[in-house]
Amino acid sequence: MSKIDETLSLQFYQYLNNIIGSEDVVKTRRNIFYAIEFGTPNSSHIMISSGSKAEGLDLKDSDYDQMYVCVSYRVYNTTKNVSTSSNRIPIIMDSSNTKPGFTKLKMYNMSRARGDKFCEIEEGKAYFSSKLFREHNLTNEMIIHGPCQSTLDGLYDFAHCFRCKEWIKQAEQWIYRPRSSWPDYKLVSSIVQYGVLFVPVGCKGSSNEDYEFRISFSMAEKQLIFSFSHTQLLCYALMKIILKDIIKTKHGDLICSYFLKTIMFWISEESSPSKWQPVNMIPCFINCIKRLIYCVQYKTCLHYFIPEYNLFECRFTDYQHKCLLDTLHEIYHSLWTNVFHTDTFQSFIAKQRVSSSAYLKVSALSCLILNTFVYRYSDCLVNITLFLKIKDNDLSTYMKSLIFNELIHLMNNDKQEKQLGRIKLIMINLRCLTDSNKFIYSQYQTSLKYFKAGLHCNATSGWSLLASLFYKHKRFNECIDIINYTLSNCTPDKIVLRLGVTLMEQTFFQKIKNIAGFLTTCKHFIIEDLRFPSPFNLLPVELMSLIEPDRGDVFIPPVVYLNTLAFLCSHHLKDNRGKQTALQDLGLTIRERYLMVPNNTIVLEVAKQCRSIVESIM
């Protein structure tokens, strides 16, 4: 390979880093989802993050999947392996009359079957119904998509599943088959030790479709993806861009991203890891395209773990096959024209053209919004304990900060009053600390750390909730002090955390993170809507009309809320000038949409409701 080719590969590699994400960005994304898994303990299931986002990719329309492993059950290969000492309900695989990659699951003890809502008795045997399992607790806001329940926009999927802690017989050959040096022995052992999962979807067209489960290697695949070099990951991501922006627009779901992942695994197993280097970026990607064409041409895409299962079997009609092959050949023969004219590349180029920044770069910023998932779990103290185990100290502190803010909402009145008294004393001691009261100060150090823990996730939420706490207990002067301090932090350089953060915001976030670190960047440069969950303990009584049963939690833009609260405090203090100033600031905030989620009608409506409430009091 010539020096010119190597230079072009390195330049293309760097360009892809800007569009897809650098190694550091990918690592941060993965750590965020790892932290989410840590922070969602539940006695009935274990949550596993999967999909493109959990793999470290955050392309347009990338999905976020969650798999819930039901811990009450355990699947076994055969009856010989059943543990009688386990308190989990044993299930036995029955692969008779099923195609490779699928199995039926039957209850080991018939006595348990009659009371199980997922079991159906057939010819004296109790089989689990994948249909009943898949549709369990299906709501009107979700639809069935394969084995998953999905949101209508398709951006979030979740599937309930069972786990077998043994390596199944169907995939036994994978352990021992000849390979170059990837995956290595340590990785293979780790994958085998975990076992496999079973998701509720049968083989299409099978007479037993509603009783079949697909064998899922999601955990194995995630470990394999995590072992990729960054060059491999960029090739994989680039293949997904080609699929989404070109192939899908012409051929729909004829090819899916799982096929690309499978092809990447086979190529990686057959080649030396030393080949996947930045200087080889272009030839590595070309080889991936060639392999995809080969697989489609011969209608053969063998499952990576179960090669007897051809993913392309009966996938295409002759006409579909010809059209798809024509498209792939056209992509290959004009490869770089096609790549740089994809929507993903064109969008990046357009944003770069109008940007004042020399180089735009994606970051992990857009994944932070998914951390709000931890709010759904009430056992916050358990979450805090688990977050201590996260090796990334910044991320651990960030997640604990989110949980601390949740704890404030969950305090009952007595706990709030007690905590408020401690915080007030802390503030007094901090203002007038002398040698004579150092002992008093030391008594409140623990409480101070507890209070400060909630201030790391962004620039406004912790302080705003503290102000709400003082307001609830009629400490209006202290509340105004906190409001003024928090508003002073609401400067135009702040990033409003939301779905769809801009590329410019991501670039700014990554630049500051590289200088100051993840935690400092979040603490000083991120703000987000203030959230009041049921039973709305901290929502001022004057704002209770904002509660709408069909929306659940109340979200208020931070500057809107702070000005509203400042007005209410001034009202109770009979400070007419303060009321007038707060009302003017509130009106200006709404008119300028200052630090509000753009193009969000619900947020704007809530802001206008806040203004109407204070105007009615005026």
Structure report:
It contains 26 helices and 16 strands. It is α+β, with helices and mostly antiparallel strands and 618 residues long. The chain folds into three domains: 183 residues, Beta Polymerase, domain 2 (2-Layer Sandwich); 130 residues, Poly(a)-polymerase, middle domain (Orthogonal Bundle), CATH 1.10.1410; 207 residues, no CATH class. The strands form four sheets. Strands 1, 2, 3, 4, 5, 8, 9, 10, 11 and 12 form a ten-stranded mixed sheet that branches. The chain has a two-stranded antiparallel ribbon with strand order 6-7. Helix 9 runs antiparallel to helix 10 and helix 25 packs antiparallel against helix 26. The longest helix is centred in the middle third of the chain and has 22 residues. It starts with a helix and ends with a helix. About 4% of the residues have low confidence.
Number of strands: 16
Distance between the termini: 76 Å
Q: What is the global morphology? A: globular
- Proportion of beta-strand residues: 5-15%
Helix fraction bin? 40-55%
Tell me the domain tally: 3
Main sheet specs: 10 strands, mixed
Summarize model confidence as the mean pLDDT.
87
* Uncertain regions spanning at least 5 consecutive residues: 425-436, 439-448
Discrete helix count: 26
Whole-angstrom Rg: 28 Å
Question: What structural category do the secondary elements indicate?
Answer: alpha+beta
Which short descriptors sum up this protein?
single chain; alpha+beta; Beta Polymerase, domain 2; Poly(a)-polymerase, middle domain; 3 domains; ten-stranded mixed beta sheet; 26 helices; 16 strands; 51% helix
